[in-house]
Amino acid sequence: MPDISETQYVQVTVDKEVYAKSSNLGDLRVTDGSGEEVPYQLVVKNSSGRDQYYSSRLLDLSTSAGQTSFTLDLGRSGNLHDRVYVQTPSENFRKQVSVYASDSNSNWRLLTAKGYIYDFTDRRANFKAGSGELRYPQSTGRFVHVVIGGGEGGLVSVSGAQVYRYDERQAREEGLTASLNIIQNSIEKSTELTADLRAPIPTHSITLNASESNFNRRVVIQASDDGSSWRLVGQGYIFKIATALFIGSQFKIEYPETRVRFIRAVVFNEDNRPIDFDSSAVFQSVVRVVIFRAEPDANYTFYYGNPRASSPRYDLARIFQYIESENVQQISLTREEANPSYVPPAPPVVPFTEKYPYLLDTALVILMIIIGVFLFIYIRKVASADK
Q1: Nearest-angstrom CA–CA distance, 233 and 228
Q2: What would the pLDDT profile of 155-164 be if each residue is shown by its tens digit?
Q3: Domain containing 382: what range?
Q4: Rounded distance between C-alpha atoms, residue 265 and residue 237, angstroms
Q5: Side-chain half-sphere of 46: how many Cα atoms within 13 Å?
Q6: pTM value?
Q7: DSSP labels for 4-34?
Q8: How many domains does the chain have?
């Protein structure tokens, strides 16, 4: 325990060792030096922040020479913003975008010329993926001018746009780099990239990487507890384009949070040459912490790994909303040790007939033979008596 001068709440981050031994974190218990159970609250530390939308008018929406452009008026200068989201009903496109800012709807200054928006729609497969978000350096300009330029697909129709600033207060996610076992599946014409996370860690995205350019592939994400039985958890597209009309890349694929040891990305190559991917990928994991009230100079022990334990219910859960938990002091777990006093529950008693099923079968066979012999002798005696 770190030195604390008074009783206060502290937090401990759940690590790989806990995930590896605990089935669902419901078996976690915290005790103090005297062995008394200490109430705690398990907190999911999502990436938290505030999406601040700025009211704006869409002006001068027009198309010319294959480009779509428009201007957004935020009403006044001084609003800090760093993103614009373009709403469009258009499908199957990939467009380069430039964003400009101005305080007077003239004398435009370039914020970025490397933005891009894209959409992939496959109606037969009922699949859609894409992004209309454009990021740029922070600006306080009243007017934002967006030019959707060249690239793949037809003219992009704009139905609306929003400017906003995302204030992230605290980093709540952590990246986990894992090695990939890469296999080329010639039958399915796919590349299978499998990661062993070494523990059932909850993740929600994978980011691949490759140095080569000019490809566009569909990807499905599969999950497995044992590395052999797989289930679908997500899908998306990856691409990396570097041409005169478009420059951009997308390697990150998100999926619902899944807690498994093995994650596999299957990249469908169709009749294209397989991509030479890097040998590792980055997974994003939402941080989980245990918060409890600690006393000065006290030692605390974490227990976990009992599959029969149920999730505890403490009063702390009902009053936690009234506790300032954002800036709680962080402490660390020491190395994991086996609990010498833990006695695993006795295995269920297996009936003798289930433990040795072949004995019953053997006994039935022997009994049938004996019955057969007696019937044979009886029939012979009856036949002899009739003569």
Answers
A1: 15
A2: 999 999 999 8
A3: 352-386
A4: 11
A5: 5
A6: 0.74
A7: -SS-EEEEEE--HHHHHH-SSSTT-EEE-TT
A8: 3
